[in-house]
Specification:
- This protein is an alpha+beta fold.
- It has helices spanning 94-113, 141-152, 165-169; strands at 3-4, 14-22, 28-30, 32-33, 47-51, 56-64, 71-75, 87-92, 118-124, 127-133, 158-164, 188-194, 198-201, 216-223, 228-235.
- The chain has a six-stranded antiparallel beta sheet with strand order 3-2-8-5-6-7, with no helix packed on it. Strands 9-10-15-14 form a four-stranded antiparallel beta sheet, with helices on one face. Strands 11-12-13 form a three-stranded antiparallel beta sheet.
- A hairpin with a 2-residue loop joins strand 9 (118-124) and strand 10 (127-133).
- The longest helix is centred in the middle third of the chain and has 20 residues, at 94-113.
- The mean pLDDT is 92.
């Protein structure tokens, strides 16, 4: 079992940890971690593990293990591997993580601007997308872009809370995704709340305030089937 520190504080960039295992594929398990594992459309974190003797293990990505609470840190190469029980300092690639956090939060806003069932989605570095089940809808890129940026500029607080599986079952309208169900198994489910805008289950990492997202634009809208529309976003980078 790995304590997932990122669930309570997505802004942690560094933590001490103890190696609890190395699996047959060379993946490293820690007693606690700030590395987010791939899931919910968000990529796993990269970064590094620093051993007490100064050696560095670059981490290429992070994934979920076979057990529900296991988080596997995947080394970029097997050249340096830690011993079980050794102490390490775990550091994530913060700039990449922060861009993923900003986009993930923005996609929650997109699902509020377009209140249709979500059939798929992906968070990427600097861009992201959601697929919607929309029957013969005509979507306007400029209107959606303007609506998103109004919300972003509204300084809405983003926070997390927990409800039980039973409470979620009693409120099925909270689940917007048709293809990906919220993470269950522990008896409770994490909610992400954007004040006055959105509330939905999510296990990913998010910013603390919508203003942190920055300006975005709709890059393109594609028809991916009779009722499926893909809306792709990107950050408006400052010159």
């Amino acid at each position: 079992m790995t304590a997932a520190l990122f669930r309570d504080d997505a802004y942690l960039t560094r933590t001490a940890a103890v190696v609890t295992g190395v699996n047959e594929r060379g993946g490293i398990l820690l007693d606690q971690t700030i590395f987010y594992p791939t899931g919910g459309g968000q990529p796993g974190d990269s970064g590094r593990l620093i051993l007490d003797d100064g050696r560095v293990i670059p981490i290429a990505t992070t994934v979920k293990g076979d057990a529900p609470d296991d988080i596997i840190h995947v080394p970029a190469s097997p050249d340096v591997m830690p011993d079980v029980g050794s102490r390490v300092t775990a550091e994530i690639d913060w700039e990449v993580r922060h861009r993923l956090m900003r986009m993930h939060s923005c996609l929650h806003l997109l699902s509020a601007v377009l209140p249709y069932p979500v059939t798929g989605g992906q968070v990427s570095d600097g861009k992201g997308r959601l697929d919607f089940d929309i029957p013969e809808a005509v979507l306007d890129k400029d209107e959606i872009t303007a609506a998103l940026n109004r919300i972003i500029a509204g300084n809405h607080e983003v926070s997390s809370d927990w409800i039980t599986d039973a409470e979620l079952d009693a409120q099925p309208e909270l689940v917007k995704t048709m293809s990906v169900q919220p993470p269950r198994g522990a008896g409770h489910v994490r909610l992400i709340r954007v004040a006055e805008v959105d509330l939905q289950p999510c296990g990913g990492t998010h910013v603390r305030n919508t203003a942190e997202i920055g300006a975005v634009r709709v890059r393109k809208i594609e028809k991916k089937g009779r009722q499926n529309r893909r809306v792709s976003l990107e950050f408006v980078e400052e010159n």
